[in-house]
Amino acid sequence: MIITDVYADGYKNLSGVNISLDPNMNILCGENAQGKTNLIEAVWLCSGCRSFRSTRDKDFIGFDRDFTDVRIDFEDSLRTQSIRFAVKKNAVKDKSVTLNGVKLPLLSSLFGQLNCIAFTPADLELSKGSPDNRRSFIDLSIAQIKPSYVNALNTYNNILSQRNALLKSMQNMLKNNCPDTSMLEIWDGQLAAAGAYISLLRYTYCNNLNKYTKELYYNITDGKEKLLLYYLSTIFNEISENSDYKTDLYELYLSKLKKSINDDIKAGFTTSGVHRDDVITEINGLLTRNFGSQGQARSVALAMKIAHAQILAKESGETPVMLLDDVLSELDSKRQKFILNNIRDMQVLITCCDDKFISGLTGGKVFSVREGRISDL
Ligand SMILES: Nc1ncnc2c1ncn2[C@@H]1O[C@H](COP(=O)(O)OP(=O)(O)O)[C@@H](O)[C@H]1O
Ligand SMILES: [Mg+2]
Q1: Ligand 1 and 13: CB distance under 6 A
Q2: Which pTM was predicted?
Q3: What residues contact residue 30 under an 8 Å CB cut-off, 6+ apart?
Q4: In this predicted model, what pLDDT tens digit does every residue of 227-261 receive, in sequence order?
Q5: How many whole angstroms separate alpha carbon 337 and alpha carbon 340?
Q6: Could you tell me if 115 and 320 are in contact, meaning their C-beta atoms sit under 8 angstroms apart?
Q7: CATH number of 131-291
Q8: Which residues pair with 323 in a beta bridge?
Q9: How far apart are the first and last CA of the chain?
Q10: Residue to mutate, 13, 51, 63, 87, ligand 1, most ligand atoms under 8 Å from C-beta
Q11: Which CATH superfamily is domain 2-115+319-376 in?
């Protein structure tokens, strides 16, 4: 997948941006607070993902502007497409999102059209941070390969919040009498059905991810360290990729929910399920999260992100666009080279503050970003 042109006006501080990209390497160079991340973020939003800085729609619009207008033209092996989103200051709720001129209801409706992978300094915490970071990472990764997965996640989360609300009210009742658990059964069946499906997909994805990360990590460490990555379920001891999520896994999931009912009522929420699972990494048999050095943790995160890009390229038949925001400046030169070598066949947008970085690169385009304006260097 290749972005050919980016147009952005009134997106935060960006003004009259109209650039044609190189099919491989694009470097956005500029001092701090000039609009580099804003451009990366505008592109990311066009991939149908939420802003990685959790910006609200009304904050898209430049402080002294009346509207935001972003357009991206891109091509895959089959066709050329165009995404556009526009927000007016006096009608923020009435955002206009179009794909090839056809109106879509939400920015998230664009998901699955323009596949991007964003990599920011926060992602370097992936292996050390809390499990929800890793769950989000694999969920987004699976959804990019199989967009319908998002529906299963939404279903699960809806049922989970209903079940939790019921558990909370039962927890309060517990003080006076023994609560009637039959109401929970309505939710348990549905939760187990969605949860079993999610577990199987995540498990299968992590198995695949492990194959790629193992090799990447071996190469980053010149064969000195061995990485193992696996999915840790709070429901299943082991999942076989051939399991049937509608029968075997469903039954096991349901029985685990039933077994945990008393704990759940006492806690006032659902104590086990895919919302509490994790992705574990071990280096030479030791948990990265507890024992990994910062350098090791970063290398694991790099391997996970690059592996995801490689899997997505293989599964979808299209290479994703890599958005690297400030990530290279955080890494030593060996790891910088490693990233650049392993994403060589993809289109890349990189931000950086330092011209010295550019001198090491051959080919591609360099842009200068200044006060929200972007020009070819
Ligand atoms: N809604 C907005 N309107 C105008 N400027 C904004 C808005 N939101 C953020 N900014 C400005 O954008 C700049 C930060 O841009 P950013 O892309 O993060 O910079 P960098 O080049 O360091 O990545 C800041 O100067 C900030 O004040
Ligand atoms: Mg920035």
Answers
A1: yes
A2: 0.94
A3: 36, 351, 353, 368, 369, 370
A4: 999 999 999 998 999 999 999 999 999 999 999 99
A5: 5
A6: yes
A7: 1.20.1050.90
A8: 118, 349
A9: 24
A10: 13
A11: P-loop containing nucleotide triphosphate hydrolases (3.40.50.300)
